[in-house]
Specification:
Largest sheet: 8 strands, parallel
Strand content: 5-15%
Distance between the termini: 14 Å
Structural class: alpha/beta
Shape: globular
Length: 277
């Protein structure tokens, strides 16, 4: 089974996508299954993991309701407020849905990423770890020091979204490389090869710019802990679905086997999100 492990759907009229405004016209419209289906077919993708794009319980419920009606959605990564004392109850409600597969923590949007190191937050993360709940970590490369410290304190089944958003447009590799090596030393942490084109110069990038980043992730995480993700429709800021799909093909190491590609394009997502159980 071939899986896009990271994409989004939204309806603007729902009103909780504060970051999607008329000033970003390419994204300021509804994006639903019928919009993505032709591209999935063209790229031979069978299923997708839909990831939350708003920090609200309402949006997570919206995505779960979409998954009830959409066969191509194999799993939903939702959101809960880990700073709310009732987060355990929120989590248990979500776990009742058969297509709920995990939650995402939006460190990127935190005024101070060190919040994730505070005792109450660490306790909530430990609870997720004890339950073996898959956790997506949306983080900027400039916030990785806190993530490294967090992972030394708690054990998570976690995945770094979008390679932790390295500064590809500037060609900057350090200290991102060092931080990702440290993160990869934790055997339960994976990385999504997603979201790269939006960190490059929009619509003005070349495949060669991405090779050092892709190869470093492969070196650190190996072929058993990486996943393909389109980050559609956010990727449209800098490239089409097909361009994103082809870009990863063009930047992979040449010696990758057919079996390893099968893990990258589906097998690892099935394992991480526990979809084969």
């Amino acid at each position: 089974m071939r899986i896009d492990a990271h994409q989004h759907y939204w309806k603007i009229s729902r009103g909780d996508y504060g970051w999607i405004t008329p000033e970003v016209p390419v994204l300021y419209r509804d994006f639903l299954e019928e919009d993505l289906a032709p591209f999935l077919k063209k790229c031979d993708i069978d299923k997708t993991i839909v990831v939350q794009a708003a920090p609200t319980a309402e949006e997570t419920n919206f995505l779960l309701s979409l998954s009830d009606q959409t066969d191509s959605i194999i799993g939903v990564v939702g959101w809960i407020d880990l700073e709310n004392p009732a987060y355990k109850e929120q989590l248990e409600m979500l776990r009742k849905h058969p297509k709920f597969v995990g939650i995402r923590i939006m460190i990127q949007d935190m005024e101070d990423e060190n919040v994730i190191l505070e005792p109450d937050f660490s306790k909530a993360l430990s609870h997720l770890g004890e339950l073996d709940i898959p956790v997506d970590l949306l983080v900027l490369s400039s916030q990785l020091t806190a993530v490294c410290e967090m992972l030394n304190k708690v054990r998570l089944r976690g995945v770094i979204d979008h390679l932790a958003k390295p500064e590809i447009a500037q060609g900057k590799l350090e200290p991102w490389k060092k931080h990702m090596e440290e993160i990869a030393s934790h055997p339960t942490i994976y990385c999504k090869l997603s979201g790269m084109v939006t960190e490059a110069n929009h619509h003005n990038w070349k495949k060669e710019e991405f090779i050092p980043y892709v190869h470093h992730i492969m070196h650190c995480f190996g072929m058993d802990r990486v996943m393909y993700g389109s980050d559609w429709p956010v990727c449209l800021l800098s490239g089409s679905y097909e361009e994103v799909y082809n870009l990863l093909h063009q930047t992979l190491p040449e010696d990758i086997s057919k079996e390893e590609k099968a893990r990258l394009y589906g097998g690892n997502a099935l394992e991480f999100y526990k979809l084969g159980r």
